[in-house]
Each structure stands twice: as structure tokens, then as C-alpha cells.
């Protein structure tokens, strides 16, 4: 497990909101065209919260941003597979 993935897991485990969960590909495919879904919203919120708490010193929040980048990378790979499999236009 990479450090970014480990941090991402910790971020998700610390979340208290029932809405803080990953959007599945099934949900993404079934959404209305005008609805925005961010599967990495938890990591994005955690990154911004870290910046707020650390006086916007990005260097102290690198692990949060790495987790966000890893999440986006995994999501884009999943979308690419869905597109190649004909499930996504």
C-alpha cells in the first residue's frame, strides 16, 4: 500500500458524515447528465481543511494532496476502463 493510499484510508476513516463515501461507477453511470459527482470529495475537503488549519502552508498538507491526486488517478483509470468496455460514452 502506498503512502498516499494509506493517508486516503485514514482520511476516510476519520470522516463522520454518512455522505462521505466514494461514488461508485454504477452511480456515476446512472446519474442525470447535469448532476456533478466528485468521487474524491472527501480527499478534496480534507485537503482544504488542512490548509485552513495550517495557515495555507501547502507543504504541511502534502500527504492530503497526494491522497487526492491518487484518488483522481484511480477514478480516471476506472472511467477509462468503463469507456473501453462500452459502459461509458
UniProtKB/TrEMBL annotation:
PROSITE patterns: CHCH. GO terms for biological process: mitochondrial respiratory chain complex assembly. SUPFAM superfamilies: Cysteine alpha-hairpin motif (SSF47072). Residues 40-73 form the CHCH domain. It is found in: Mitochondrion intermembrane space. Keywords: Disulfide bond, Mitochondrion. Residues 1-23 are annotated as: Disordered. GO terms for cellular component: mitochondrial intermembrane space. Residues 1-17 have a biased composition (Polar residues). Belongs to the COX23 family. Required for the assembly of cytochrome c oxidase. This is Cytochrome c oxidase-assembly factor COX23, mitochondrial. It comes from Coemansia guatemalensis. The lineage of its organism: Eukaryota, Fungi, Fungi incertae sedis, Zoopagomycota, Kickxellomycotina.
Amino acid at each position: 500500500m502506498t503512502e498516499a493510499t494509506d493517508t486516503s484510508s485514514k482520511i476516510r476513516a476519520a470522516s463522520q458524515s454518512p455522505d462521505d463515501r466514494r461514488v461508485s461507477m454504477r452511480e456515476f453511470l446512472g446519474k442525470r447528465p447535469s448532476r456533478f459527482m466528485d468521487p474524491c470529495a472527501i480527499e478534496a475537503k480534507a485537503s482544504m481543511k488542512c490548509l485552513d488549519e495550517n495557515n495555507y502552508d501547502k507543504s504541511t498538507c502534502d500527504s492530503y494532496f497526494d491522497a487526492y491526486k491518487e484518488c483522481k488517478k484511480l477514478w480516471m483509470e476506472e472511467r477509462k476502463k468503463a469507456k473501453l468496455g462500452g459502459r461509458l460514452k
